[in-house]
User: Fold Hydroxypyruvate reductase from Planctopirus ephydatiae.
Amino acid sequence: MDEAAIHRLTEDAQAIWWAGVQAAMPGELLPRFVRLENESIIVGGDVRPLASLRRIVVLGAGKAGASMVLALEAALGDEITDRLVVGQVNVPEDCVVPTRRIQLVGARPAGVNEPTLVGVASTREILELAATTTADDLVLVLLSGGGSALLPLPRPPITLEQKQHVIRLLSTRGASIEQLNLVRRNISSVKGGGLARALGPSRTHVLVISDVIGNPLDLIASGPLLPTPDELVSVQQQAALETLASFAEHHEVATEVWNVLSGTTQETLSPVRAEISHHLLASNHQAVQAAVQEAQSRGYTIRIAVSDVGRTANEVGTDLAHAIADEPCREPLCWISGGEPTVKLVPYDGPRKGGRNQQVALAALCEWQHWDADQADRMILLSGGTDGEDGPTTCAGAIANGAVLHRAKELGLDPCEFYEVQNAWPFFESTGGLLITGPTHTNVMDLRVALRLPLD
Assistant:
């Protein structure tokens, strides 16, 4: 085993990955959009004299919520924060940190990306606070990836349990984030502009960290501040109905859900009174570009730097493994890709645990295990969620490299046996390949770093 090559590749891959994550951190990004100047607060290009404000109302949800709140309170300073700011933001339980004035609510457990009763209760409180806003208030909404599960309010008569079942069903059957959020928007009272309709006649700025390729505002956190035009509501409901029907038989989903999507259950929509602007702080593209710069600074030649859409974890891992192994290598090479592949669970009666990033890395190992050991020691693929989460696990993803292959061989573990039933966690836990970061306090989807060194 070439321990020196493996050590260098592992150290470089982690540094490159972290450079991408750091590029999406709110601490540096938010002050570019919110600042104090000449006794005024400036958000984007909007200038509001502080003396004219009754309150600065802060609302929101997402995995980056805590770091966005801390960055905002720092940008405003202690005196302005204490005097003017009120607010509530929903985050995962392991992202709750002490703040000065803006309350962080742990709206779901760590590693469980589903709506909860606590999340529903806090969302109601957020809507109630939104309804108190007036033209004398400045409203700042902090939205980031993961906001859909953290800002839940099922549309009556749908229950939380019925909504949870729909989300699980779509997730386990390979629905894309676009398909998932289309359905979410149409079975929720807060998504699809529900929060916008709850606001009073205020000036509202939405600060967004995107976890969707292309940054469509209607899909990020399922678009709580972007109402579907009244004339398109029925069209969107029909699209959501057809999407759900493509993944589920009628008897698998509660009648209440089908009735809402078919228009049988009507809802009176309030007009939007607030003046709303959106500002994009960070996206997967920024993470990929920052990773490219770090790789180049470490002497790697970039072969690919892209974001993927609409592919499975198996396809992404297999294709990257072949691209790395098949490329003629005369200098250190690097492949970087972002995005969020899907996983469609295969039938399996036994216990299993994993996530899409672990599955990507496992797919690569299945290809590399048959290669010459010297060559395998000089290749690595790191695949990780920039939020520090990968499926219902406590890791961000996994690393496929020569050390993992050597350890698997010592233990008599065949990566393909775990790959076929999508049981990646126990394999990487046993072989030392888990990427464990804890919550990163941002979320711009996944980032994959692949490296290869030439043979001496």
Notes: The first strand starts at residue 34 and ends at 37. The two ends are 14 Å apart (CA to CA). The CA atoms of residues 169 and 249 lie 11 Å apart. DSSP finds 17 helices and 15 strands in the chain.
